[in-house]
Amino acid sequence: MENGTIVHIDYDLYNADSDKLIETTREEVAKEHEVFDEARTYEPMITVIGDGRLIGGFENHLADADVDTEYTFDIEPVDAYGERDASLVETISQNVLLRSVRDPNMLAIGAPVEIGGRQGVLQMLRAGRARIDYNHPLAGVTLRYTYTIVKVVEDRSERVATLLQMNTGRSDFEVEFDGDDVTITLPESIAYDQNWAYAKFSLVRTLREHLAVGTVVFREVHEPRVASEEE
User: Fold this and answer.
1) What kind of architecture, by CATH, is found in domain 155-231?
2) Do the Cβ atoms of 12 and 147 come closer than 8 Å?
3) What pairing do the DSSP bridges indicate for beta strands 181-185 and 112-115?
4) How does DSSP assign 85-123, residue by residue?
5) pTM for the full predicted model
6) Torsion of CA 50, 52, 57, 59, to 10 degrees
7) Domain coordinates of the chain in residue numbers?
8) How many CA atoms lie within 13 A of 165 on its CB side?
9) At 79, phi and psi to the nearest 5?
């Protein structure tokens, strides 16, 4: 797969040492391992090859992958989330912990906590002391991926729409090309998104990097409000 290719990937991620399922995009696999979550939607992951969004070991494997072919391979920690670093495990006073968390009643061993803007996991809480592990939860773990590239997005307008969805979580944009210039009609409700003013500049850069587009026009349409009969 060439860098910049937009793909849909179904995958299952396991701890290679314990065979425990960590994550999956497939509903049937989640049910098989008794981790099915009714609150989430199981669907292929969308990513851009070589975009740096995935861990290094996965990115490297995708470079030589083909569509509709299932692969299973292991990734050592050095190419995943790194080895565990003992210096990232710290002990603090219980009072500091209680002042730092929003809801002390939610504290539990193994639960995530945020201290001074750093994300960690509470390992120990006793005798007025708390131990926080700031290592990534998968640090030191050898990962096993089973994955299939189920789709390559080739249509130019669909590629733009897909990049928009990846960066905003929305799928209600309209995309129209005129040569290499692209006009993107925005959903009216995006005007209420405080992050949009900043996100669109990042989107322009992404579209130029991956699609070599020319002029990018963001088009706003505000339809007149029609009063209901009751009004």
Assistant:
1) 2-Layer Sandwich (3.30)
2) yes
3) unpaired
4) -GGGEEEEEHHHHHHHSS-GGG--TT-EEEETTEEEEEE
5) 0.81
6) -20
7) 1-81+140-154, 86-133, 155-231
8) 16
9) -105, 10
- Residue type present at position 219: R
Strand partners, 151: 8
Q: Collapse the DSSP code of 73 into the 3-class scheme (helix H, G, I; strand E, B; otherwise coil) and give the result.
A: strand
pLDDT tens track for 101-137: 888 888 899 999 998 889 999 999 999 999 999 999 9
The DSSP bridge partners found for residue 231 are none
7 vs 225, which has greater pLDDT? Answer: 7
CATH ID of 1-81+140-154, from 3.40.50.720, 3.10.150.10, 3.40.50.2300, 3.10.50.40: 3.10.50.40
The DSSP call for residue 192 is G
Beta strands in the chain (DSSP E): 6-15, 21-24, 45-48, 70-75, 89-93, 112-115, 118-126, 129-133, 143-153, 174-178, 181-185, 216-219
Model confidence pLDDT, tens digit, residues 1-52: 888 899 999 999 999 999 999 999 999 999 999 999 999 999 999 999 988 8
Task: Give dist(CA 144, CA 109) in Å, integer.
Answer: 27
Compute the distance between CA of residue 94 and CA of residue 123 in angstroms, rounded to an integer.
12
- Residue 70: count of CB within 10 angstroms of its CB: 10
Thinking of the domain 86-133, which architecture would CATH place it in? Answer: Beta Barrel (2.40)
